[in-house]
């Protein structure tokens, strides 16, 4: 206490050091609160956009996903457990080649990569996903360690597109505009 009485700079130093744990804890709590608030906002935004996030450990093949992604595939939040291998096997056979090519390109150049493909849900039905991913962590030898991305259910849009394509030949003759030269109206004789 005597050191704190020997002038304003010493008093400030004493006050700051005495309150440092409280300020540090308060700062950490504020940072954690801000992070949780931001996470909540992100979760709400992704849910509103019908999107879910995914994170892949490239080395182990372990995958973490958001609750929204689990719901997209008709799983409960605590019943969906996946891996890179399970993701690959859930891709429609007709789409797997193109999706895996995009995945390998992303691993090689970092991405972002984008793909639309069919993925099997819990009930065995196929849904359409639009996925965007990129490498978010690299090792010391520039090897990919982590990939992060977003999946969006675009099933309804794809079905509408496919229906329009199916109907296009039927209605194509209606899209032809017939034209004829414009003619000036005939002059009328005064009454």
Give the helix/strand layout.
Elements: H1 8-48, E1 51-57, E2 63-65, H2 67-72, H3 84-89, H4 93-109, E3 113-120, E4 126-138, E5 144-153, H5 155-171
Antiparallel strand pairs: 1-2, 1-5, 3-4, 4-5
Largest sheet: 5 strands, antiparallel
Could you tell me how far the N terminus lies from the C terminus, measured between alpha carbons in angstroms? 116 Å
Q: N-to-C SSE series? A: HEEHHHEEEH
Which strand-content bin applies to the residues? 15-25%
Task: Fill in the keyword field for this structure.
191 residues, 21% strand, 5 helices, alpha+beta, 5 strands, five-stranded antiparallel sheet
Give a summary of the structure in a few sentences.
This protein has 191 residues and is α+β, with helices and mostly antiparallel strands. 46% of the residues lie in helices and 21% in strands. Strands 2-1-5-4-3 form a five-stranded antiparallel sheet, sandwiched between helices.
Would you write up a description of this structure?
The chain is α+β, with helices and mostly antiparallel strands. The chain starts with 7 loop residues before the first helix and ends in a 20-residue tail after the last helix. 46% of the residues lie in helices and 21% in strands. The model is unreliable at 1-18 (pLDDT under 50). Strands 2-1-5-4-3 form a five-stranded antiparallel beta sheet, with helices on both faces.
């Amino acid at each position: 206490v005597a050191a704190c009485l020997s002038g304003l700079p010493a008093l400030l130093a004493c006050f700051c050091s005495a309150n440092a744990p409280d300020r540090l804890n308060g700062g950490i709590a504020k940072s954690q609160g801000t992070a949780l608030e931001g996470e909540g906002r992100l979760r709400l935004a992704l849910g509103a956009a019908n999107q879910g996030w995914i994170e892949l450990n490239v080395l182990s093949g372990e995958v973490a996903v958001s609750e929204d992604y689990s719901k997209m595939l008709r799983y409960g939040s605590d019943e969906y457990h996946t891996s890179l291998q399970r993701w690959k096997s859930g891709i429609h056979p007709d789409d797997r080649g193109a999706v895996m090519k995009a995945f390998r390109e992303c691993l090689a150049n970092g991405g972002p990569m984008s793909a639309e493909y069919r993925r099997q849900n819990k009930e065995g039905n196929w849904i359409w996903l639009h996925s965007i991913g990129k490498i978010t962590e690299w090792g010391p030898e520039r090897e990919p360690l982590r990939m992060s991305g977003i999946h969006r259910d675009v099933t309804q849009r794809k079905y509408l597109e496919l229906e329009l394509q199916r109907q296009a030949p039927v209605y194509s003759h209606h899209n032809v505009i017939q034209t004829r030269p414009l003619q000036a109206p005939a002059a009328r004789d005064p009454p």
